[in-house]
Amino acid sequence: MKQLMKPHRLLLVDDQQAVLFAMGDYLSWAGFQVDMASALEEAQALLNGRSYAAVVADLRLVGDDPRPGLEVIATARALSAKTRIVLMSADEVDETAARRHGADVVLQKPKPLQEVADCLITLLEGKV
């Protein structure tokens, strides 16, 4: 696994608690400072209250909006052009639309946690 040169604050957004906590634990172990949200409103409140080096958001969350993950990443991008954004989904994703909303990378779920961490480190620190 690649190693972080310095700690980075990260927001994880997923409505599946097991996924959220497993990914949060792994990324904390990898050296990230992790905040977690399980709903669109919770994620938006965290984004408005703190700056993040990166956001990892699931495309689908519980609620009426069929793709709230796009709202999460659009909010993150509007607040900071520097924030690196990873959109994850078990569904097929229109990568062009995801990038228009602000995603830097789209990952298909399930994805090994080490690959998620390596992707984030590459985005944040330019490591290959």
What's the CATH superfamily, by name? Response regulator
Helix content: 40-55%
**CATH architecture classification name:** 3-Layer(aba) Sandwich
CATH level-3 fold name: Rossmann fold
Instruction: Name the shape in a single word.
Output: globular
- Please give the order of strands in the largest beta sheet: 2-1-3-4-5
**SSE order, as H and E?**
EHEHEHEHEH
Task: State the name of the first-level CATH class.
Answer: Alpha Beta
What is the CA-atom radius of gyration, in angstroms?
A: 13 Å
Distance between the termini: 11 Å
Poorly predicted sequence stretches spanning 5 or more consecutive residues: none
Total domain count:
1
Set down the secondary structure blueprint:
Elements: E1 9-13, H1 17-29, E2 33-37, H2 40-49, E3 54-58, H3 68-79, E4 84-89, H4 95-100, E5 105-108, H5 113-125
Parallel strand pairs: 1-2, 1-3, 3-4, 4-5
Helix pairs in contact: 2-3
Description of the molecule:
With 128 residues, the protein is an alpha/beta fold. It has one domain: 3-Layer(aba) Sandwich (Rossmann fold), CATH 3.40.50.2300. Helix content is 42%, strand content 20%. The protein has a five-stranded parallel beta sheet, sandwiched between helices. The protein is globular and about 35 Å long.
